[in-house]
Amino acid sequence: MTLPVEVFDQCLQNNPRGQEVLYRVYAPQMFGVCLRYAGNQMEADDIMQEGFIKVFRHLNQLNNPQALDGWIHRIMVNTAINYYSRQLKFQNEVSLKFEIEDATISADALSKLSYKEMLRILQGLPAGYRTVFNLYVIDGYTHKEIADFLGISENTSKSQLLRAKASMRKILLRIL
Amino acid sequence: MQDFDPIEDHFRNTFSGRESAPPQDSWEKIRSRLQASSPRQGKAMRLVGRGRQFFHSSSLYPVLAVSAILILLVFIWISYSAKHTIRGHAYAGEERLCRGTAYLFTVADKAEPIDTGKTKLIQKVKVDAKGFYQFTGISQGEYLILVVPDTGTEAMKNFLPSYYDQDSEEYNANLVRIRQEDPTLDIHLQPRK
User: Fold this and answer.
1) Distance from the CA of A31 to the CA of which of A87, B104, B113, B173 falls in 20 to 30 A?
2) Predicted ipTM?
3) Contact B123, B132 (CB under 8 A)
4) Distance from CA of A127 to the nearest CA of B (A)
5) How far from the centroid of its chain's Cα atoms is residue A62's Cα?
6) Which of A118, A131, A136, A143 to mutate to test the interface with B (most CBs of B within 10 A)?
7) Looking at domain B84-191, which of 2.40.128.110, 3.30.950.10, 3.50.30.30, 2.60.40.10 is its CATH number?
8) Model's pTM, two decimal places?
């Protein structure tokens, strides 16, 4: 996504028109990000608003305008993590035996799920599971990066991911 | 090499780069907050801005107005319904009156005599051996207080029934106005001539 230079400059000058253009360009994608990090639509809206406020306030700290996409995305993710920081209770248990279902779920079965159903499953996860699942599976961060991000160990990040997937598998087996 | 996980794969494909329409009013909320926290404005202005935003964006005006009126009415009701006490001593010359009766009247027209019905007896209490009397549970208003020595007493022989503060004639009596305070009122009986 490329934002015209003049719009970027307007945003740097706190010009409301420029800010609105930037918002209109990025909001749909960022709301998609916020929805999957949030517990529901209202919280996603709160996170997105807070994220865009940060974007406009700190835009002058972005040295390379070409990196705007990734920068805004990171701000949204950070805002979501901060939003749920009190709820993010990570268990350090790394045992992989706990609740993993033996049954596998085929890609064909998964393809029957609608976006809304998948979003509901994701949003229904505890904040800690959901955050790690989002960071690792969808946003492509490594466990080391997630560990640094959240101030946890790599093993905790891995166990959270396994727990998240186990929870999802349970729900999927029930509904598919 | 990492194992293929269909769940991971399916969620990744579904959500990566997925767009979703944000709520209609999100931009307005962001814009308002940006304006309220503009660096050109001081802290006070930001607070004013937030206050305005709250009142402009809410439909609380009728609720606030009705609440204010109710609070005012309750305050007035409490003020007027508060009960007071009138107390004091009755004197017969230099001495305190030993026995007698104190009467409390409401006043419609101070110029009218009691028996015209312009005044109304509210309370009647005994004046004790130390000359003390007390009316309780009195609402705000204007009153007359009359002290009458008991018949057959020395005081009755030498003093006239008298109104606060020392007049035997009702139309000369001082009005007692009760507002917020609980007054202490001494009454001096008028000597017979």
Assistant:
1) A87
2) 0.86
3) no
4) 17
5) 21
6) A118
7) 2.60.40.10
8) 0.56
